[in-house]
Amino acid sequence: MKKRALAILLAGVMMFGLAACGGSQNAADTNESTGNDAGGAAAQETEADTEADGGQEEMTESGTTGGGDTTVRLAWLGSGQDKEALDACLQKFTDKTGIGVETVYIPGNWSEYFTKMQTMIAGGDYIDCAYVAVEGFEMFIDTGMAAPIDDWIAAHQEEYESTVGDIDPNMLEKVKFDGHVYAIPEEWNNVVTHFNTNLLEEAGLSLPDENWTKEEFLEYCEKLTVEKDGVKQYGCVLPDGYFAVEAWLYNFGAAYMNDDFTRSTINSPEAVEAFQLMQDLIYEYGYAPIPEKNVDIIQQLIDGNVAMGFWGRWPTNNYNANGFTDVAVQYIPSFHQNQPICGVGGIFVMKDSQNPDAAASLANYIGSAEFIEKFMAAGAIPVLDSVAQKLVPELGYPENNKIYYESAKTAISVQAPVQYPECDALVTRVLSDILVNKADVQSTLDAAAAEMDSYLLDNIE
Amino acid sequence: MKENKKTVSVFQKKKRADNIAGYLFLLPAIVTFLLFIGGPMILSLGLSFFDYNLIQPPEFTGLKNLRKFLIDPQVRVSFANTFKFLLILVPVHCIGGLILAFMVSSVRSSRLKSVYRGAIYFPTIVTTASVAIVWAYLFGTDTGVINYFVRQLGGTNIPWLTNKVMVYITIALFSFWKFIGTAFLYYFIGLQNIPDVYYEAARIDGAGTLQVFFRITLPLLSSTIFFVIVTNIISVFQIFEEPFIITNGGPGTATKTISFYIYEIAFKQVKTGYGCLLAFSVFLIILAVTIIQFAGQKKWVTYDYE
Q: Taking CB atoms and an 8 Å cutoff, what residues of chain A touch B161?
């Protein structure tokens, strides 16, 4: 009898222990629902990111103080390193409107940012509005995560016009879908050539003209590729991702897909020519290093290990952090044409927002000159023309920085269909195959085109 | 007769009570398994028949995911790469760990033995991701430390991470350094458990070191070897951190493993249904391989030390 009682008692204790474990799990779930921690389906990748970045990449929250009954939850890309600056800027909104702002920082790249937001929403958490780049526009609308703000605009026409009136219509069009406005654009980026001016000077070169040709580019690469104390200084690093590669493709007169995203054109003769040149720059000419995952190529330019790179305005954050100002920018060589690319970012109001009007007001404020002038010293190009023309030169470098904003009228958006994550993964793989594995360009792109076509099938009406 | 019946009845009651107690002891493990392993597995199988992007309700698609699975070239590539890792890493760990354990257990000084034991096991307690990043920097082609010394010695850059054959050697080196401690520890404990009397008898009979190793150590260590092989195969099937952090699955798709592909599908492309199908396929393969191993072990594994 005693034994039986003891057995039951022990089993009870063990069950209690299990229940206690269950409690911890619930606690983790609760954290997830408040955005303090990441769990659920995204936990593995968040964990991997967190570990990969030395444990720093966790979701962070901050917020304004003194809000009234209404608080808006804003999702923001990043790990919260700029939260003091952002809070200070948003505090003005709270002071004016009485609406509090709680900012949820989500770390990772764009794909990870979108996935984590999807997971949060699926887990019962809510976001009122979110900063979204063009890579996520179609996906946000297609999955029903975002809601149009037409009603808010109709009710606040003057407020809206005062914000977007200064935006180039070309940029404003990027946030309109099927006749509805979904976001207030805030910033954009293009892709240009960055030069380490010290290395240009050493090679006796000056900044090339804006319509510099492929031949001139190769000549620059040749002169800038030298051996120094047993270490090779490369003429350039190659574009390293979907956005920058498509910028090259545009200048070759190519693109990943057709305009309505129903058929891939990644294996067009012009695209093949572009990828072939990239491969040749490594293996035939020796002007560029083989791309590697863990090499920070912006740092390579800063350190003088490479002379040219292809990015937007985002490296200015790295330049600032390193106190590096010996840099100039020029358009990507006009391989066949000079066709700038653009990627717009803006604030979307979420469909499940608990305060859609307040969220739209916040989105409008973040798109305003008052906010942008205070917040965006470096990193992106303000979408407001007058603010861009004031802020971009104010930084003092890079040389020729006017090309950041002067292409707003003519820039074509990067192609980001609903299937962006699949296409992004495919382009990354193709790049690695061609540039690292030295795979045959034509056959690799033919296979990629077939695969991309299978992704884009859903877009055919 | 009555007495006999009473005895049987008391015996049955006691047996039943013991059974209940036994089941109660098992209950926490069963509940844990059902909640955190069995339940999600069944859910995963169920979700395989749906398209689910976490935002919109799951949409039943029947065998669509299965049809895709059968023709998806990335599945073939990922499984092929995973099998390549199996062929390289399982022998590296199983044989390397055994050699290290045998060498350390042969050291006479207990202090030195502790030092070796600590040094070999230490990397396993360090977070894989953090050291993988460091190794990735060490192995950089132009900027890596190892190639710097290679160049200093007059050599040329070794494509540690940019050649699709070399990259397997790089990951095997990292994996050996990082994970050999686990296999080593199992073998080391297994070696300690072999009674000295067998060795003494062998020495008296004049057996040499190799004979002792092959005729006594290996047979009596077979249960540990079997355990190490089974657990190693399972963990290599799930290999993720090394390709994710060191190579990003590249160059091209050279080191994209099935776990890496599941991560891409389920967590980057948010195709939860297809991701579940991939995960379930891995489970089935691991299950089949493990069943085969358990069936085969009867022929070579001994659990009897007496």
A: 292-293
